[in-house]
Amino acid sequence: MRFALICSLLLAACETQPATTEVQPPVPAMPAKPAVTPQTLATTFTAYLDAINAHDLAALGGYYADDAKVSVVDSGMQFTGGAAVGTGFWKPWFVAFPDVKVEAQLTLLKDRNLTAVMQMRATHEGEFMGIPASHKKVESQGCLVISYNENGKIQSEDHYTDGAVLMAQIGAMKANKRTTFAPWPNKEVVIAAGNGVEADNVALTRKADAAFNSHDVPGMLALTSDDFVDSDVTAPTDITDRKVGEKNLKELFGAWSDLKYEASTTWAAGNYVVTVEQYTGTNTGDWKSYGIKKTGKAAHLAAAHIRQFDNGKVKKSWLFWNSVALGQQLGLIPPAGAKPKVATK
To answer: Cα 220 from chain centroid?
Structure first.
């Protein structure tokens, strides 16, 4: 009897106890992915250049996407993936030019796109493309065009430079090229604002494209300021005289009667406009400025072009392309892959 009563009381107590649920600890929130902006990419780019100047191959590999594509435009040099870029591109440079240093003179950014005018200084102390060390000091200027992915890694990187500038300095080629490139006084970093001024400058650039493709020399000159400076990396000097510029344009169109280009990329940042251009044409006449006699051959080239605007006019133009590629297509220079001969005096 007593046992039954105790059991009844225990059962009642169990029935009146509130049900308990196990409280799960909160799931920690995933950290937000850092936003990739032109501002963050500008910082990343500075660190990337530091890694180049430190010759740090391991660090350099970390700046590239696994499927990144890197090229030296119109040279036949192409690499895919950070590891291939490190071993195939940067390592040979560091061996051939153990003191190589690079510096950005102008850096332009829009969205995940970056274009920079670069200068390089080094001493040729190791074999380079089959050419033994010359122990000569070298300088060059080129344009770097980079596209980043959503993680801030380099997706594509194209180097626009004139191979003849370097080859002439190390004695592998005879060419009338620059041997020095003065550092720019101001190392600007300009981020696109998406304003009306930039839109106007892009519209003016498209007018310049149209004038060039129709070989309208007066129309081209009308878009430039009175103090316009034309800087072509393949030329021995900048052109500041408008009459010389007019003469050179007429000579160009006389030597390439069907010359045209298509701008595959056009964007603005501040007073600057970047275009990537694909040129096609047939050499139908002598091109005296470059010492080229008529060959009758067709050629195609890529170029990076930066224009600086001031009050609705082009104030300065920088053009970067590879004259070696042109010479090869015209049969004036051995094709890519052929071992160059060191020029003798």
So the answer is: 25
Q: What angle do CA 246, 252, 255 make, to 5 degrees?
A: 140
Q: Is residue 344 part of a domain?
A: no
Residues 219, 246, single domain; the answer is yes
φ/ψ bin of 91: left (φ > 0), alpha (ψ from -120 to 50), beta (otherwise)? alpha
Residue type, 175: A
Question: Do residues 131 and 216 both lie within one domain?
Answer: no
- Report the distance separating Cα 148 and Cα 126, nearest Å: 32
- Is residue 122 within 8 A of residue 97, CB to CB? The reply is yes
Measured from the Cβ of residue 58, the count of other Cβ atoms closer than 10 Å reads: 8
Q: What does the chain come to in residues?
A: 345
Residues 151 and 207 in one domain: no
- Comparing CA positions, the residue from 112, 185, 173 lying closest to residue 145 is 112
Structural domain range at position 49: 38-191
Does residue 201 share a domain with residue 119? no
Say whether pLDDT at 343 is over 50.
no
In a domain, 270, yes or no: yes
How many DSSP H helices and E strands does the chain contain? Answer: 10, 12
Mean pLDDT, residues 47-58 taken together: 97
Q: Quote the longest CA-to-CA distance of the chain.
A: 125
pLDDT digits (tens, 9 = 90+) for 131-164: 999 999 999 999 999 999 999 999 999 999 999 9
- What are the pLDDT digits (tens) for 273-300? 999 999 999 999 999 999 999 999 999 9
| Phi-psi map region of 258: left, alpha, beta (phi>0 left; psi -120 to 50 alpha) | alpha
| Residue 16, token pair as written in the block | 């009146």
178 shares a domain with 295 = no
More confident residue, 6 or 303: 303
- The per-residue pLDDT for 50 is 98
**Domain shared by 241 and 308, yes or no:** yes
pLDDT in tens, 184-212: 999 999 999 999 999 999 999 999 999 99
State whether 233 and 154 are in the same domain: no
